[in-house]
Amino acid sequence: MTEKEMYALMNANPGFHLATMDGDQPRVRGMFLFRADENGIIFHTASTKDVYAQIQKNPKVEMCFFGDGTQIRVTGVLEQMFDDELKEEIFNHPSRKFLQAWKEKGIAHLLQIFRMKNCEAVTWTMETNFAEKKPIVLCKE
What we know:
six-stranded antiparallel beta barrel, 45% strand, globular, 8 strands, Pnp Oxidase, Chain A, alpha+beta
């Protein structure tokens, strides 16, 4: 699978699982991708959530996307983004209408954006179940 095909699968299947560490205990939860392309894999959360605190303590994470019988696991380090234009783009995106309530309640400042770059991805399908994993680098700088 090529890098562009991976981005296409991620964007077509924006629900993904994110693994973080809470001390020595792994934590996994479902998340909602904003965008994946050569500039990074971008998602957001609230600063009040446990996942936010876990990322602050240890930004090394793994993401797992699944679609069309293919699993993509992406491993890397998250960077927090402080980009007001991107934040507005997220708030105004049709897939993020649920965030309008944050603005109405005056809690828009809770939105925190993360990006993963220079990460490694491996794919899995039933057909390649026993094949050697061949990591490829995504979102190269």
